[in-house]
Specification:
It is built from six helices and seven strands. By secondary structure, the protein is of the alpha/beta class. It has a seven-stranded mixed beta sheet, with helices on both faces. The model has no long low-confidence stretch (mean pLDDT 94).
């Protein structure tokens, strides 16, 4: 059985998105992928195309770079929802100079109200050096706080390092 909220966290290229996709695919439910990335340049267009190709067929994709609560509210009870990722969603709000606390509270409420199981992907950004500028430090701190709140609300929390899942909270479903 899939948890109400599963939280998959890891560093860049750790394998977290692949693990999240396997969690969703194993549930045998129709799959909804909520993408938070925005393609501002050619490199980001290529990344998004690579993610779509890696996922393969059988996913309904919803783009929600800012309004993640509305996208979550649109999910059906019989689906499984994969949100990739909280990090880009937070970045979008930070760069738009939105109230991060209000946006986070809205997201957490939407996750609690979502009728479908949700798998949320996020980056662990606190293991590196202290950034050299205020914007980067603000982002790192906000991402750390968001990750803590997502982990607290989740039934399953899995850290991914070098492609290996480490269950931090809860229990993996039987198909994993």
């Amino acid at each position: 059985m899939l948890s109400r909220l599963s939280f998959v966290i890891g560093g860049a290229r750790s394998g977290k998105s692949g693990l999240a996709e396997r969690l969703a695919t194993g549930s045998a439910r129709p799959r909804r992928y909520i993408a938070t990335a925005e393609a501002w340049d050619d490199e980001m267009h290529a990344r998004i195309a690579r993610h779509r190709a890696d996922r393969g067929a059988g996913w309904e994709t919803v783009e929600a770079p800012l309004d993640l609560p509305t996208a979550l509210a649109g999910a059906g009870q019989g689906e499984v929802v994969l949100v990739d990722c909280a990090t880009l969603w937070l970045t979008n709000h930070l760069l738009a100079d939105h109230d991060l606390e209000a946006e986070t509270a809205s997201l957490l409420a939407a996750l609690a109200a979502c009728p479908a199981p949700v798998i949320m992907v996020s980056n662990e950004v606190g293991w590196g050096i202290v950034p050299d500028n205020a914007l980067a430090r603000t982002f790192r701190d906000a991402q750390g706080r968001l990750n803590q709140r997502l982990a607290a609300q989740a039934d399953l929390v899995v850290g991914v390092m070098a492609g290996l899942p480490m269950v931090l909270k809860g229990q993996m479903p039987p198909w994993m």
